[in-house]
Amino acid sequence: MTMQIPLMQDLDLQGLRTMIRLDLNVPIKEGVITSDARIRAAIPTIEMALDKGARVILLSHLGRPDPDALDGSFSLEPVAKHLGDLMGRSVNFCIDWLDGIPENDITLCENTRYFKGEKSNDDSLANKMASLCDVFVMDAFGASHRKHASTYGAAKASSQACIGPLLNREVEVLSQALVNPDKPLVAVIGGAKVSSKLGVIESLSKICDHIIVGGGIANTFLMASGFEIGQSLSESDMVEPARQILDLKGVNVPLPVDVITGKEFSSDAEAEIKAIDQVVGDDLILDIGPETAMIYKDVIDQCRTIIWNGPVGVFEFEQFSEGTRFLSAAIESNPGFKIVGGGDTVAVVEKYQITDSISYISTGGGAFLEFVKSGTLPILDLLKG
Known about the structure:
Blueprint: E1 17-21, E2 28-29, E3 32-33, H1 37-51, E4 55-59, H2 77-87, E5 92-94, E6 106-109, H3 123-131, E7 135-138, H4 149-157, E8 161-163, H5 165-179, E9 185-189, H6 198-205, E10 210-213, H7 215-224, H8 239-246, E11 258-262, E12 272-275, E13 284-288, H9 290-301, E14 305-309, H10 322-333, E15 337-340, H11 343-351, E16 360-361, H12 366-374, H13 378-383
Parallel strand pairs: 1-4, 1-7, 4-6, 5-6, 7-8, 9-10, 9-14, 14-15, 15-16
Antiparallel strand pairs: 2-3, 11-12, 11-13
Helix pairs in contact: 3-4, 6-12, 7-8, 9-10
């Protein structure tokens, strides 16, 4: 990393109460964890701290509980048990941990979002968290774009704070792609809304040779170019910003020349291939067409770095998934440096079984986009000193 930020691996943790904020926000259905990837990813950080002689205190959020109506459905207790099983050792689970944490090698504290002051970064809550540790470690990349009490406030209030190896690795890899990428560089940005990704697209337009837009984002760009998009998902108030990006010199933003349309957003909708100038008032654009897919593939084939966030169509519906599948295959066969970020994109990678071909899969969605947009994160700015 170019910034001088304290790293956990460089610290002496012998005998110290080491509080590590992780991202253990895993899917749980009827008490059963359905994907433990984030838990497994966190284990090397925990083991590193233990090897350094630390007394490990783990924090994480899970889901979006309402602090005023807690019923235990977002409890981290199943995660504590699963973590213990994976590590082959006891993991203490602490419910009322703000009142004090018993001395154990590893303690996982109950969901940080059970506290009203967590999301508002309440000073008193952050100070209380910080008082329970000697060292605070932020290692939850997926939550690192948020200034919450457990992701930012506690680090600010701690006598010693640093970042962990997972967060450090994310920042190093993303920096490599953004600061000194192998050119040509293409970004594939899909999803529903331009408004949520406009800043990202604007930042990428300064460093990318090509930006491929998909999904509802592409529809707004088509509107900006004067095309009829029927009833397709779009944002009329984002047309002017999209037009400004299209007018930029030095970056190529190819738009669809053909699309797959349907009359309704449904898995039963009949798919029809149409040239972009044949779209009519009651059409929904739900995927890119085969000619567009070939144009995009040609762009991807010539690039040496790929940043990918978001599918280019409604890949959940089989008849509108071909564009995303085709681009996935193009990205898989590209020998360059490839970064994927965001939950939907990771789902695409898993669906089409191209995980092994991706250079780096980011553990964060919003944090991934925030870092791409601004080149930093709140915790990094805080710890730069």
